[in-house]
C-alpha cells in the first residue's frame, strides 16, 4: 500500500491508551452513536416539542434542564472530527471524495452508504451502543454485552459478505 | 524486532502476569488523617436519643437505624425498624449499598457508643456519608427514653419539657411508663441534612 | 486514584473538555490507522485488509490490561468504571442489524465521522443515514419496547459468568486475539489488493 498508514498494532496500542484515559478521567469509555442520538433528539425537540414530551423514547432525554447536546459523547465526537482532520492534514489525505470500489459507480456507493447508515442507526439504538461504545469499550471492561455485540456485528458482516461482494471486490 | 513482534510479546507477557497476580480487592481510605481528626473533634456525627425517638414516632422515612451488635443481641431486642449489620461484617459487599448511599440517614447504635462509633470511623474514612452515631447507645436509650426519671422540683422548665416528651415517647415506643398515648409534637427536630450522593456509577456511558 | 471525575478529584465541568480532548486522540488514531477508508474497513470481511481486526483487538486488549494493572496498583477503582449492561435479546438483534449496516455501508458511526473529517462524501451520506435510522427507531419505539427491555442481566462481566478472574479472562482474550492476528496476516498474503 502506498498510503502511509500507521502500523496497525501500534495504532491499536495508541487507541487502547486513549480508551484507558477515558476510563481514568471520566470513568467511562468511548462511544459514537450516542452523540448521533443526542443530535436527533435535540432536532426533533426543536421541531415538535409536544411529540418529544409525549414519546416514551424522546421524553427520557428532553425536558426541564436537560441539554442532550451538552453530553460527553457529543463533545467527544467533535474531538473526533478535529482529530481525524488533523491526521488527514498531516498525512496528506484531505480530499473531497466518494470512495468506492472501481467496479461500481459512485452513485451506487452512495445509495449503499445511506442504507448502511440507516441500518447502523437503528441497530445501534437497539443494541445500546455501536462498535466503539459497546464492542470496543465493552470488551475492555470485559462486559458480556461487549462481547455479544462484537460477535453479532462481525459475525453478521462476515455472513453477509458473500452477498455484498460485488460492491467491494 | 518489528513493532508487531514487540506488541505481541508485550501483551502476551502482561497477560500472563495479570492472570497470575491476585486481584486487588482492598478498599482505600478516602479521608486523610488530618481531615478525619477535624471531623471527629467536631462530633457532628452524634445524634441524640431524643431526636431519634422523635423521628421514630413521627415515622420519618429518611431514618434508618443500624444495629451493629451481634445477631444474638439483635434478636433479643432491637429498636423498631433497625437492621442488623454486625460490626465484624460491616465491610462486606452485602451491606455496602446500605452504608454508602445518599438517601437515608443511617443511625448506628450499639449498647454503648464504642462499637457504633468504631463502625462510624471506618465508614467515614471510606468516604461514606450520611452515617451517624446514637449518643449513649441502647443503655442511655433505656435510661432516658424508655424509663425516664422525673426531674427534681428545682430543675429548669426545659428539663420538665424533656421529661414530658420522654414519658410520652416511651409510651409510644412500648416503654415502662404510662404517659399520654400520643407523643407531643416537638417543635424543632434538627435533622442532619442527608447529603445527596452523586451517582455512584460513572455518568451514563455507552453509545 | 481514578476515575477522577466521578470521584470529584477533578471538577465535573472539566468532563466535557476531557471528552473533547479524548475525542481528538480517538479521531487522530483512527485516521492514522486508515479507518477513514471504507474499502479498508470492508476489507476485513474479504480477507484483503485485516486492519480492523488488528487495531480493534489490540486496542481493546491494551485498555483491558491497562484497567487491570491500574486497579492492581490502586490507581483506579474498577467499581466506579461504567460497565455496559447486558440486555441479551436487543444486544444480539441490534448487533445483527449493525453487522448488516457495516458490510452494506462500509462504516460504523465512529469511523464515518473520522472519514467525513477528511472529506469522504460517502461517509457523510452514511452519517445522514444514521440520523434517519435513529429517528425510525425512536418513532417505532413503543412497538419494540418490550423486546428492548428483555433479557436484562445488568452490568455482567464475562469473567463473572465464567467464574474466573479478570486477569485470566484477559489472558484468554489475548491468546484468542494472537491466533486471529496470525490468521489475518495469512489471509492478507493470500488475497492482496492494490492501492486504494
Give the gist of this structure.
The complex is a heterotrimer of chains A (169), B (207) and C (196). Chain A is mostly helical.
Strand content of chain A: under 5%
Query: N- to C-terminal separation of chain A?
Result: 16 Å
Quaternary form:
heterotrimer
Secondary-structure-derived class of chain C: mainly alpha
Largest interface: A-C, 124 and 130 residues
Main beta sheet of chain A: strand number and arrangement? none
Ends distance of chain C: 45 Å
| Coarse shape of chain C | globular
Whole-number tally of structural domains of chain C:
1
Kindly estimate the percentage of residues of chain C that lie in beta strands according to DSSP.
under 5%
Residues in helix, % of chain A: 55-70%
Task: List unreliable stretches of 5+ residues of chain A.
Answer: none
From the alpha carbons, calculate the radius of gyration of chain A and give it in angstroms.
18 Å
Give me some keywords for this one.
heterotrimer, A: about 170 residues, mainly alpha, 8 helices, globular, B: about 210 residues, alpha/beta, Oxidized Rhodanese, domain 1, five-stranded parallel β-sheet, 5 strands, about 40% helix, about 10% strand, elongated
Produce the secondary structure layout.
The complex is a heterotrimer of chains A (169), B (207) and C (196).
Chain A: H1 8-26, H2 33-47, H3 49-54, H4 72-90, H5 106-126, H6 131-140, H7 144-161, H8 165-168
Helix pairs in contact in A: 2-4, 6-7
Chain B: H1 3-20, H2 33-42, E1 46-47, H3 49-57, E2 63-67, H4 71-76, E3 83-84, H5 96-99, E4 105-109, H6 114-125, E5 131-134, H7 137-146, H8 157-173
Parallel strand pairs in B: 1-5, 2-3, 2-4, 4-5
Chain C: H1 14-33, H2 38-42, H3 51-72, E1 86-87, H4 88-105, H5 109-117, H6 121-148, E2 152-154, H7 158-162, H8 166-190
Antiparallel strand pairs in C: 1-2
Helix pairs in contact in C: 1-5, 3-8, 5-6
Amino acid at each position: 500500500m502506498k498510503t502511509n498508514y500507521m502500523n496497525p498494532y501500534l495504532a491499536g496500542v495508541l487507541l487502547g491508551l486513549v480508551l484507558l484515559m477515558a476510563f481514568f478521567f471520566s470513568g467511562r469509555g468511548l462511544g459514537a452513536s450516542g452523540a448521533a442520538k443526542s443530535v436527533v433528539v435535540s432536532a426533533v425537540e426543536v421541531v415538535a416539542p409536544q411529540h418529544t414530551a409525549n414519546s416514551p423514547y424522546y421524553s427520557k432525554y428532553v425536558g426541564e434542564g436537560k441539554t442532550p447536546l451538552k453530553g460527553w459523547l457529543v463533545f467527544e465526537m467533535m474531538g473526533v472530527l478535529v482529530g481525524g482532520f488533523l491526521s488527514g492534514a498531516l498525512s496528506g489525505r484531505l480530499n473531497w471524495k466518494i470512495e468506492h470500489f472501481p467496479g461500481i459507480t459512485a452513485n451506487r456507493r452512495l445509495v449503499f452508504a445511506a442504507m448502511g447508515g440507516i441500518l447502523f442507526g437503528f441497530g445501534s439504538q437497539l443494541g445500546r451502543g455501536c462498535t466503539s461504545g459497546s464492542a470496543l469499550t465493552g470488551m475492555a471492561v470485559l462486559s458480556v454485552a461487549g462481547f455479544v455485540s462484537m460477535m453479532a456485528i462481525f459475525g453478521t458482516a462476515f455472513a453477509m459478505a458473500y452477498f455484498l461482494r460485488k460492491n467491494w471486490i | 524486532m518489528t513493532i508487531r513482534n514487540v506488541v505481541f510479546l508485550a501483551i502476551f507477557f502482561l497477560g500472563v502476569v495479570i492472570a497470575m497476580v491476585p486481584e486487588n480487592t482492598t478498599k482505600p481510605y478516602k479521608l486523610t488523617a488530618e481531615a478525619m481528626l477535624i471531623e471527629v473533634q467536631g462530633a457532628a456525627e452524634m445524634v441524640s436519643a431524643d431526636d431519634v425517638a422523635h423521628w421514630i414516632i413521627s415515622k420519618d422515612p429518611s431514618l434508618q437505624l443500624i444495629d451493629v451488635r451481634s445477631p444474638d443481641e439483635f434478636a433479643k431486642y432491637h429498636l423498631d425498624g433497625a437492621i442488623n449489620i454486625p460490626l465484624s461484617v460491616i465491610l462486606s459487599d452485602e451491606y455496602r449499598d446500605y452504608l454508602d448511599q445518599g438517601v437515608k440517614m443511617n443511625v448506628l447504635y450499639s449498647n454503648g457508643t464504642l462499637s457504633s462509633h468504631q463502625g462510624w470511623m471506618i465508614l467515614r474514612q471510606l468516604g461514606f456519608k450520611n452515617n451517624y452515631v446514637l449518643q449513649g447507645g441502647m443503655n442511655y436509650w433505656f435510661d432516658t427514653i424508655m424509663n425516664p426519671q422525673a426531674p427534681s422540683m428545682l430543675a429548669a422548665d426545659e428539663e420538665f419539657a424533656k421529661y414530658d416528651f420522654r414519658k410520652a415517647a416511651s409510651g409510644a415506643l412500648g416503654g415502662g411508663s404510662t404517659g399520654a398515648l400520643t407523643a407531643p409534637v416537638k417543635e424543632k427536630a434538627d435533622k442532619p441534612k442527608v447529603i445527596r450522593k452523586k451517582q455512584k456509577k460513572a455518568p451514563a456511558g455507552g453509545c | 486514584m481514578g476515575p477522577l471525575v466521578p470521584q470529584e478529584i477533578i471538577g465535573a465541568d472539566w468532563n466535557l473538555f476531557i471528552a473533547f480532548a479524548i475525542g481528538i486522540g480517538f479521531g487522530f488514531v483512527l485516521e492514522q490507522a486508515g479507518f477513514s477508508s471504507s474499502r479498508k474497513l470492508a476489507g476485513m470481511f474479504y480477507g484483503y485488509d485485516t486492519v480492523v481486526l488488528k487495531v480493534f483487538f489490540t486496542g481493546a486488549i491494551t485498555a483491558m490490561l491497562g484497567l487491570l494493572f491500574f486497579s492492581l496498583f490502586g490507581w483506579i477503582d474498577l467499581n466506579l468504571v461504567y460497565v455496559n449492561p447486558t440486555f441479551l435479546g436487543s444486544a444480539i438483534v441490534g448487533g445483527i442489524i449493525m453487522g448488516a449496516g457495516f458490510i452494506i455501508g462500509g462504516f460504523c458511526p465512529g469511523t464515518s465521522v473520522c472519514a467525513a473529517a477528511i472529506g469522504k462524501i460517502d461517509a457523510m451520506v452514511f452519517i445522514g443515514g444514521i440520523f434517519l435510522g435513529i429517528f425510525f427507531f425512536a418513532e417505532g419505539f413503543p412497538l419494540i419496547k418490550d423486546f428492548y427491555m428483555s433479557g436484562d442481566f445488568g452490568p455482567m462481566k464475562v469473567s463473572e459468568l465464567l467464574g474466573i478472574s479478570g486477569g485470566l479472562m484477559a489472558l484468554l482474550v489475548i491468546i484468542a486475539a494472537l491466533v486471529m492476528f496470525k490468521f489475518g496476516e495469512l489471509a492478507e498474503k493470500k488475497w492482496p489488493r492494490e492501492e486504494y
